[in-house]
């Protein structure tokens, strides 16, 4: 595989994310102070700094590719993953900075991020063609809202993972510095409520763009159907959470299930479908 200009910057950004992942995991280990076992928070600045550095390096990678091929990285799977790693890192860094209560869950979130990073490393950085239908403000609103939606889901996955892992003795020890499961559960579903807002707006702007691009608002193609089912599952999950007393671990399972469906919608459907959407997110 030939190395293109943006790849060294991409690799450097992914290395920064790897550092954030490893430091976040290391920070879960309690350390002895005198005769007591305590959990330090000093590593959190390193984690945040590494995420921000990764975002900056990925910004350079995107800019270099943009200049080289003449448009942003929005079409093939390599480009989609690179741009998603950038937006997920940016939004999660803001959440990590502003919501101290979720910081230990970075060990889960950054691990998911680095799985995506490992995937992009094995892809061919092929050039892509920018179709005329993409010159539309509604398309960019659609994409931006979708990126925020996925980042909020990912933050929820971190909290959901904590609630599941706390079923074990080791999980309770790792995440003992976090608030109670009840507090985590409320924060996770507040993120899910925000995610539903952004998902709804994403579907609306996508429909308006589809009308401008192809003369129809909705066609029930593979991607649109999967996106609708993701929205429906999220809405049902919120209804269940608000209407019934759901154990924290079950909340975690619901949140992760929603993320898995969203993941398939974003990173799978556009590339197995032959519809007009193909290659679009």
Automatic annotation (TrEMBL):
Protein name listed in UniProt: Cytochrome c-type biogenesis protein CcsA/ResC
Example of a GO cellular component annotation carried by this entry: plasma membrane
Keywords, in A-Z order: Cytochrome c-type biogenesis, Membrane, Transmembrane, Transmembrane helix
Domain Cytochrome c assembly protein residues, every copy: 74-273
Subcellular locations according to the entry: Membrane
GO biological process, one term: cytochrome complex assembly
Entry membrane topology: Multi-pass membrane protein
Pfam families hit by this protein: Cytochrom_C_asm
GO MF entry, a single one: heme binding
């Amino acid at each position: 595989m030939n190395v293109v200009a943006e790849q060294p910057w991409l690799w450097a950004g992914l290395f920064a994310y790897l550092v954030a992942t490893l430091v976040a995991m290391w920070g879960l280990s309690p350390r002895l102070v005198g005769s007591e076992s305590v959990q330090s928070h000093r590593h959190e600045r390193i984690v945040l700094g590494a995420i921000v550095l990764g975002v900056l390096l990925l910004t350079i990678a995107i800019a270099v590719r943009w200049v080289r091929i003449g448009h942003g990285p929005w079409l093939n799977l390599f480009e989609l993953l690179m741009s998603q790693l950038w937006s997920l890192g940016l939004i999660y860094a803001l959440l990590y900075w502003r919501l101290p209560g979720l910081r230990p869950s970075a060990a889960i979130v950054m691990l998911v991020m680095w799985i995506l990073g490992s995937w992009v490393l094995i892809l061919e950085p092929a050039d892509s063609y920018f179709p005329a239908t993409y010159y539309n403000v509604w398309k960019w609103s659609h994409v931006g809202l979708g990126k925020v939606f996925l980042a909020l889901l990912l933050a929820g996955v971190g909290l959901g993972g904590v609630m599941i892992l706390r079923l074990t003795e080791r999980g309770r020890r790792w995440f003992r510095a976090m608030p109670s499961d009840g507090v985590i559960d409320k924060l996770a579903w507040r993120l899910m409520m925000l995610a539903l807002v952004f998902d709804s707006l994403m579907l609306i702007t996508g429909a308006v763009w589809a009308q401008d691009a192809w003369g129809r608002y909705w066609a029930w193609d593979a991607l649109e159907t999967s996106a609708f089912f993701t929205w429906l599952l999220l809405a049902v999950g919120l209804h269940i959470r608000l209407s019934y007393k759901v154990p924290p671990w079950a909340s975690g399972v619901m949140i992760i299930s929603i993320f898995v469906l969203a993941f398939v919608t974003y990173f799978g459907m556009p590339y197995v479908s032959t519809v007009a959407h193909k290659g679009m997110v």
